Amino acid sequence: MSMFDGFRFRRTSSPVHELDPRVKFLYVCIVFAIAVLFNQLLPLLVLFIIQVPFVVVARVQKEWVRSMKGSALFATFIFVTNWLSFYFYGGYESLSWLFERSLAMTLRFIVLIESFSIFFLTTSPDHLGLALEQSGIPYEFCFAFTTAIRFVPVLAEEAQTIMDAQKARGLELEKGNFINRIKNYVPILIPLIVSAIRRSLELAEAMESRAWGAISKRTNLYVLKMKRGDYFLIMISIAILVFAIYVWLYIPVPYMADLLSL
Amino acid sequence: MIEVNDVYYVYPNGVQALKGASLTVNDGEFIALMGQNGAGKTTLVKHFNGLLKPNKGEVLIDGVNTKDVSVATLARKVGLVFQNPDHQFFCETVEKEVSFALKNFGFEEGTIEKRVNWALNLLDLTQYRDASPFMLSGGERKRVALASILAWDPQIVILDEPTIGQDHAQKERLRQFIVQLNAQGKTVIIVTHDIEFVAECKPRIILMADGRIVAEGETNKVLTDPELVNHASLVLPEVARIFISLRDFNLPKDVVDIYDASKVLLERLGKTK
Q1: Measured distance CA(B141)–CA(B90) in Å, rounded
Q2: Which residue of A13, A83, B73, B177 pairs with A102 in a disulfide if CB–CB is 3.0 to 4.6 A?
Q3: What distance in Å separates residue A195's CA from the closest CA in chain B?
Q4: Considering the entire predicted model, what is its pTM?
Q5: Is residue A7 scored above 80 in pLDDT?
Q6: For residue A115, how many other CB atoms are within 10 A of its CB?
Q7: Mind telling me how many Å the CA of B25 is from chain A's nearest CA?
Q8: Other Cβ atoms within 10 Å of A242 Cβ, number
Q9: Model confidence at A231, in pLDDT bands (50, 70, 90)?
Q10: Which of the pair, B116 or B251, is modelled with greater confidence?
């Protein structure tokens, strides 16, 4: 669960928290695009490093490190599979080349995790809902989305209780071979799903009895407004994107190994 | 025998639920663990079958440290019935639900069948054998949950909030059932804040507040002490309140249930007649 902790919003205030979620999302998309554009180590390393100030300004270092740690296992997996596939099918050149290519692919994954982690760590579900709503998405969908996010901790707690209840009846989750271990989770998943469905029906009734959806045109108490910092981030993001595309089109990116040996 | 020695427990989210709880429960005892929400009652009983292990201190079940054995091993001896039966149902029929634990413990087919019949009969559920546990009423679901624990005949039975969502008739049946279980030599522990229910059961009471055990003793002593009861954020049983307000009439103050009350009052009225 530690990996998910690196994405869970915590209520603090910082310049990054106050940014418009739509702008932050644009920034995440641009980072995503650039990360996919390049498959060399150098630009991905730059992309990784330029995001670190965000983490520091937002004061979410601890959670961010946790998301990085949580993704370590999967990152290792990516490194190993890339290593093997480059070695066998990718036209093997040299060991340093192999290492650099595999590392670049791993870093691409880490950069994506990094930017999404910053986004979710600093954006409250309420703001996210507002952003969706003001982007013209129907309120029903926005509401479903934010409710889903908000119920994740509730469900996690419930899953723990269910696990305890079944363990108290002698269920051993870690027992048996691979197939049996998966089967062991059936007594946990069924009660969890049943109670989630029950809960959603109850929630729907409770909301309808409080006149949810009575007015088709909703207004909001808080309205997202772009501020100076938001425009600034938009400009930086677009500048980085333009620069990245320019480099991608016209400048051959050198290998780190060549740079280091110079 | 359950021995709890100076147990501390902190949940992963940082909530300190137990702050030095110590307690001994002898074989065949009947105990009610009481206190307000968040006092640490459920946390404490989850230590009895090893679901939680103390951060500091130790819990011994018949001399065995809970840290040294698996939950499944302890569960064989300590049956814990959870508060909400919906947190455990997953089978199509009541029969399968009750036999789930027996299969986990590796009982033989023949034994499983016998035990399931016995447990269903014990809790008056035989007619629901092939019904889906999800379709039963709240009270029936609670009984199925209880049957699914009693089926393997654990020596210690713990019931977490057994009276929640039960009507009065069901509560009375539950009370008789618990007393009967205890009379058969089982150690019974109920976790509850239903003070009227406890007053009629007359167990040994353990009061908890803020992660510690603040008082223990006989029902008549603990539940008639306004200060103690207040400290655990509970309210005195109605009968006790009546007798406290009648204290000027030289009536005993340690009366908590209707049966004792009527006996005392009849005696007094008989005398003055």
Answers
A1: 12
A2: A83
A3: 7
A4: 0.78
A5: no
A6: 23
A7: 20
A8: 10
A9: very high
A10: B116
**Minimum Cα–Cα distance from B158: chain A residue:** A168
Cβ–Cβ of B87/A187 closer than 8 Å? Answer: no
pLDDT at A91 over 80: no
Residues in chain B: 273
Contacts for A203 with CB less than 8 Å, ≥ 6 apart: A147
Query: Tell me: the pLDDT tens digits for B180-223?
Result: 999 999 999 999 989 999 999 899 999 999 999 999 999 989 99
Q: Give the long-range contacts of residues A77-84, CB within 8 A, separation 24 or more.
A: A78/A105, A78/A106, A78/A109, A79/A103, A79/A105, A79/A106, A82/A106
Which of B84, B90, B101 has its CB closest to that of A170?
B101
Length of chain A: 262
**What's the whole-number average pLDDT of chain A?**
87
Q: Which residues of B touch A159 (CB under 8 A)?
A: none
Pick from A8, A166, A169 the residue to mutate for testing the B interface (most B CBs within 10 Å): A169
**pLDDT surpasses 80 at A6:** no
Phi, psi of B78 (to 5 degrees): -115, 110
* SS3 (DSSP) at A31: helix
**For residue B24, what pLDDT is reported?**
95
Residue B112: CB atoms within 10 A of its CB come to: 19
Asked whether A149 and A40 are in contact (CB, 8 A), the reply is no
Chain A nearest-CA distance from B12, in A, is 11
* Token pair for A181: 């271990």
Q: Which of B82, B89, B104 sits opposite A170 (nearest CB)?
A: B104
